[in-house]
Amino acid sequence: MLQVPPLPGCFIVSERTGRWAVALRRALPEAPLRETRTLDECRAELDLAPAGVVAVEFTAARAEETAAFLMQVARRYPSVRVVVLADRGLAEHEWLLRELGAAAWTDSPRELAAIVEVTRRRLESAAAPRPGLREQMLARLPWG
């Protein structure tokens, strides 16, 4: 079996059933996935690790709560990317949720390519060392 090194950063899946987490673990075995069952639990995890990716379940029953959560994440955790895991039949809400900050959307556990791409990019960039002030200033000089 191929061993893939873990990606740094936080990958939180917030859903009630665990169905999405199973599919995401298969698609991203290298991502350190944490599961939460409520958005309050998800917020608590974000307070501990405010960078990475949050995959949030979107259902008709929790539509308003999820929309409010997306707005809060965008304001409170600017380093976090949110991806949406939707129930079938809710595609008409995709663009509204993207306006609220969703980086990717899927309504099928078999179609996770966009979620996987956003997650890998974000977690890899969280691992990349950021240049210090001196390096940033030197990079801006015309003679570089």
Task: Explain what you see.
The longest helix has 15 residues, at 113-127. The protein contains six helices and five strands. Helices cover 43% and strands 19% of the residues. The protein has helices spanning 19-27, 39-48, 63-76, 94-99, 113-127, 133-140; strands at 10-14, 33-36, 52-58, 80-86, 102-106. The model has no long low-confidence stretch (mean pLDDT 88). The protein has 144 residues and is α/β, with parallel strands linked by helices. It has one domain: Response regulator (Rossmann fold, 3-Layer(aba) Sandwich), CATH 3.40.50.
**Beta strand %:** 15-25%
Arithmetic mean pLDDT: 88
Shape: globular
Strand order of the largest sheet: 2-1-3-4-5
The CATH superfamily title: Response regulator
Largest sheet: 5 strands, parallel
In whole angstroms, the N-to-C terminal distance is 45 Å
Low-confidence stretches: none
Question: What class do helices, strands and sheet pairing give?
Answer: alpha/beta
CATH class: Alpha Beta
What is the CATH topology classification name?
Rossmann fold
As a percent range, the share of helical residues equals 40-55%
Evaluate the radius of gyration.
17 Å
Architecture in CATH?
A: 3-Layer(aba) Sandwich
Give the number of domains: 1
